[in-house]
Design brief:
The strands form 2 sheets. A 6-stranded mixed sheet has the order 1-2-3-5-7-9, sandwiched between helices. Strand 1 and strand 2 form a beta hairpin. The chain contains 10 helices and 9 strands. It has about 250 residues and is of the alpha/beta class. Helix 3 runs parallel beside helix 4. It has one domain: 2-enoyl-CoA Hydratase, Chain A, domain 1 (Alpha-Beta Complex).
């Protein structure tokens, strides 16, 4: 489920699913559409991207949907959903503030990387778990690398079963702020949004273009990466790993 709200120039996009805010295709589509729509809405000056609950920001790809993929075309379509959300964030002319209240896994790390300013709690540990199920963070990798650099992204991608703390993520550039409590996170999210709505929309849009320079090929790049994941998800290794995960 994705909900949107506009209040005094601040656009709020909230997503949530019962499975720890994991992302099925329907939610990915709604997220991409909501970000694009708010980007085109003159009533919106800044966007806040957040999820429901307190413990998990986003658990990444929906394992139920991953388990149901039986051909490359379906795999490409599913992983393209992540590509579309990241590219929607990239192309959106408004700054996007990410409220990262809890753990982020796989695609959740990709979302945190795609926002323009990530504000996290100390509980927002991160993990790129894709390799552990035989895939790899191919689609979200460029966004993570853009924020953290190749070395830190590689560390997360290779050590796929171990959590890294929110403080580590801040040191590496993924998070801009880390607070002890979720209440402090919310206070700062609102504080920053209130400041940004007073700035020039044109200046912010031009500045965002500067921040994302060099990513103009991502429409093709991320779809090419989605095709890699869409093929790997069909392997016996991945099918078995997903079954074991779902049975745990």
């Amino acid at each position: 489920m994705v909900s949107i709200e506009i209040n005094k120039g601040i656009g709020i996009i909230t997503f949530g699913t019962e499975a720890h805010n994991s992302l099925p295709s329907s939610v990915l589509k709604d997220l991409a559409d909501s970000i694009t729509g708010m980007g085109a809405n003159d009533a919106v000056k800044v966007i806040i991207l957040k999820s429901e609950g307190e413990k998990t920001f986003c658990a990444g790809a929906s394992f139920d949907e991953l388990a149901a993929i039986n051909d490359e075309a379906t795999g490409l379509k599913f992983f393209s959903g992540f590509a579309n959300v990241i590219n929607a964030c990239r192309k959106c002319p408004k700054f996007i503030i990410g409220r990262i209240q809890g753990k982020a896994v796989g695609g959740g790390v990709g979302l945190a990387s795609a926002v323009d300013y990530a504000i996290a709690s100390q509980y927002a540990s991160v993990k790129l778990s894709e390799l552990a199920v035989g895939i790899g963070p191919f689609v979200v990798g460029p966004a993570v690398q853009r924020k953290m650099g190749l070395s830190a992204m590689s560390e997360l991608a290779i050590n796929a079963t171990e959590w890294r703390t929110a403080r580590w993520a801040k040191e590496k550039g993924l998070f801009n702020e880390v607070f002890d409590t979720i209440e402090q996170v919310d206070d700062y999210v609102n504080f920053l949004a209130d400041i940004l709505i007073k700035h020039s929309p044109e200046a912010m849009a031009d500045l965002k273009k500067v921040f994302w320079e060099g990513c103009e090929n991502w429409d093709k790049l991320l779809l090419d990466r989605a095709a890699i994941s869409g093929k790997l998800v069909l392997s016996d290794y991945t099918k078995d790993a997903i079954r074991k995960f779902k049975g745990a």
